[in-house]
Amino acid sequence: MKRRRFAAAGLVAAVAAVAAIAAGTTSGAVKAKSITVWLQVDAQSSWPDVVDAANAAFKAAHPGVDVNVQYQTWPTHLQKFDATLAGGNVPDVIEMGNTEMTKYMAAGAFQDLTADKSTFDNSSTWLAGLAASGRYGGKTYGVPYYAGSRVVTYRKDLFTKAKLKVPTSLADFQADAAKLVAQNTAKGFSPVYIAGEDWYVAMSFVFDYGGGIATQVSGKWKGLLDTPKSIAGLTAFKNFFSAASRASKTTIETQPNPYDVYAQGLAASIVGPAWFSCCVGKKYTPVTGQFVMPSHEAGKAMPGFLGGSDLAVPVGADHDLGVAWIKAFTSTEAEKALEAKGNIPNTTSLFNPSKINERAAARSWFVPTAKNWVNVENENILRNMLAEFLTGKLTVRQAAAAASDNVASILNASS
């Protein structure tokens, strides 16, 4: 998680101050002559024409209102946003990473867009995992912008040598792993390198079997990891890991990076963000391909955790103009233009089945949008659960039951 400038209490106080200023304005006040939009530099460097087109469409519908786009950087934008909340000079639209949304939604930093949701293009087919990151307490605060998916990056030469085709089911992939092991006997070689504590991969198995992490019931969070469907998914993960990965059962997903293992020739495939293909090493780049992580149901993609961005209207900003600009920037035309730049659009209705990234994003999931979720991550609840049953310290059912209780307890804590 990125470091924040304000503690939670300080953030809430800053938000309250901005809200008070906003409430003090008269309903008949003259609309702003300009709006300020914060986007990340990705847009400036890779799709400035899409931004320009959205600005033009917005200005055509709102004559006399200028758009001041200010480009931010990922390492500093939250600190700057916290400062604007404290100072009462927030932007009218802000781009947020999907994993950054929850803390600010919980603090009341964003305006409720629930009543506006149906007016955004393709809102009924927004990517499930990305749309979930913009919802809190049953209300919509963020509009999906674009996404990044997780796929399998693999050595085409090794698959060809073993006479393997791209697997279309989890069972096929697990069977392929045995064939790849038989032909590659180097110490530490993994047919599918997955770190033992890679909870992003493990939870994909859980959601693939219809399970989940936690849900709200009558205002209280209830753990789901110990439900039969979640147990089935975790058991499938354990079986797949045992058959396919030679990584340490207690290794976290970033140490070592899977693409480094791949670049050393010690993996026939890795599971992770699609951009992993950038770092597989010059030797293996020509023989590297990608495919969708297959579901246990043949022909389907396993649900994946999506990366990506949302757009929000901060409290104290001009609601109507902020919403209008977001509509222009996430219109069908704009999303098609983003797709042409290599991004995953925010809606499944625009997906091209021939594109691996988009097929992988068709089924997706997100973590519970609870203000205390960060504490679940910081206390390594999911990682510890995986290590416990992979090492045999506990059974899957025992580890899942303990983790489920811990998740619920943390999410329901008052602070």
List the defining traits of the structure above.
single chain, 415 residues, alpha/beta, D-Maltodextrin-Binding Protein, domain 2, 2 domains, 5-stranded mixed sheet, 3-stranded antiparallel sheet, disordered N terminus
Structural account:
This protein is α/β, with parallel strands linked by helices and 415 residues long. It has two domains: 202 residues, Periplasmic binding protein-like II (D-Maltodextrin-Binding Protein, domain 2, 3-Layer(aba) Sandwich), CATH 3.40.190; 196 residues, 3-Layer(aba) Sandwich (D-Maltodextrin-Binding Protein, domain 2). The protein has 17 helices and 14 strands. A hairpin with a 2-residue loop joins strand 8 and strand 9. It starts with 7 loop residues before the first helix and ends with a helix.
CATH class of the largest domain: Alpha Beta
| Content of β-strand | 5-15%
- Cα distance spanning the termini: 18 Å
The helix count comes to: 17
Q: What CATH architecture label of the largest domain applies?
A: 3-Layer(aba) Sandwich
- CATH-level-4 superfamily name of the largest domain: Periplasmic binding protein-like II
Count of discrete domains: 2
- Outline type: globular
Structural class: alpha/beta
Helix proportion range: 40-55%
Low-confidence stretches: 1-7, 24-28
- The largest sheet has its strands arranged as 2-1-3-13-6
CATH topology of the largest domain: D-Maltodextrin-Binding Protein, domain 2
